[in-house]
Amino acid sequence: MLENLTRTEAALAARQQDVPRGVLTAHPLVLERALGAEVWDVDGNRFLDFVGGIGVMNVGHNHPRVVAAVQQQLTRITHAAFQVAAYPPYLELAAKLNALVGQGEAFKTVFFTSGAEAVENAVKIARSHTNRPGIIAFRGAFHGRTLLGTTLTGMSAPYQQNFGPFAQGVHHVPFPDAYRGISTEAALAALDTCFATEIAPERVAAILLEPVQGDGGFLAAPPEFLQALREIATRHGIVLILDEIQSGFGRAGAMFAHQTAGIRPDLVTMAKSLAGGLPISAVSGRAEIMEAPTPGGLGGTYGGNALACAAALAVLEVFEQEDLLARGNALGEALATGLAALAAKHPRIGQVRATGCMCAIEMVTDPASRAPDAALAQAVIDAAREGGLLVIKCGVQRNVVRFLPPLVTSQAQLDEALTMLGAALATAGA
After folding, report:
1. Which residues have C-beta within 8 Å of that of residue 261, sequence separation ≥ 6?
2. Cis amide linkage into residue 405, ω under 30° from 0
3. Which residue, 49, 190, 314, 323, has fewest beta-carbon neighbours within 10 Å?
4. Taking Cα atoms as reference points, which of 278, 280, 226, 289 lies closest to residue 256?
5. What is the C-alpha to C-alpha distance for residues 414 and 430, in angstroms, rounded to an integer?
6. Minimal CA–CA distance to 143: which of 132, 134, 152?
7. How far apart are CA 373 and CA 393, in angstroms?
8. Tens digit of pLDDT for each residue in 186-205?
9. Strands 38-41 and 212-213
10. Is the peptide bond before 223 cis (omega within 30 degrees of 0)?
């Protein structure tokens, strides 16, 4: 019987045998190659990729500048461990990120491997700087799957399961969501209540949030909310940490999403699209805060790997030389327009969300009740894949379909994707 299986079927059978079920794979596919906004599975089937490695491939799969930079670095140093000896790509990348995030202010940067590592180390830095224990995070947030990352994440399923007890000192408050009746004023009032009833502000080391919640449903923090948090943090000596892991590098209307609100955070965490597919993360922050941990307090064997640093430098070069930020904003505007047109035809799309090229549709049972419909969202995702388009879900209730196309996606590819999505919505009965 095994000889009659397709290559995909054989590989998925091996996956079931050798890989634990806890590692969820959204699509029953095994990919063999990729280029730009397209991927091909082991049986030669082509798909438009509007997931991009979950927001990793902003410059597109196998961008030639990134490939060339990694190939060149392979002939020099692949790994030395920055804790043993420094190397130029690490230093060059740190200087570039300090300029991009600091915008003229003295900033410093340290590199790690994963987004969760960046978040955890940002918390360590904030606690070291303030000598305080408390962290304010938000419901619906996603900050990683490590113990502290899971604690900071503001969703119970699927991330917390039976993994506790969790880390101490973390307090969650509501995040603005106008569609669900949570205004900026209500969210700020809840923060005041948290200060009054759970932890006094002088015991809080950091306020941590995503300027656009990723896994929580692509909810954008209103500019006035970010501005209010900046003022509150300054007033109480609290470190303001913005998690730009999914929203950074041109995805949400600016190089970093917080820049559209005109604020400057104390610390910024980055990963995902920083290196065009290679694993690297970063914490950039005000120099006086970054200097709080003493030597040996920060680091990691693979943090700031030379290959990943070279790839990240190439990614920044792409943004500079190919006008990728403007291209991404134009793509996001066209995608949002197309989604709005589909929403007009399909009443079970409760809301279209678009922040730059970070777009989503929330699926509901009916527009009056706005009751979340996770089954419909999954049906749309499955039908889209059958038509050749890859998307995934998000949201606390898992009823939001999100779109993260590479910023190099062409208009023709976008038009094709919208046609595929329209067919999927019809098939799913939206």
Report:
1. 211, 221, 223, 226, 227
2. no
3. 323
4. 226
5. 21
6. 152
7. 12
8. 999 999 999 999 999 999 99
9. unpaired
10. no
Q: How many CA atoms lie within 13 A of 133 on its CB side?
A: 8
CB 6 within 8 A of CB 24: no
Pairwise CA distance, residues 220 & 212, whole Å = 4
Q: Which structural domains are found in the chain, ordered by start?
A: 2-62+323-428 (3.90.1150.10), 66-321 (3.40.640.10)
Task: Work out whether the CA dihedral 224, 230, 233, 236 comes out positive or negative.
Answer: negative
The confidence score (pLDDT) of residue 157 equals 87
Cross-strand pairs, 108: 285
State the pTM of this model.
Answer: 0.96
Q: Compute the distance between CA of residue 28 and CA of residue 43 in angstroms, rounded to an integer.
A: 13
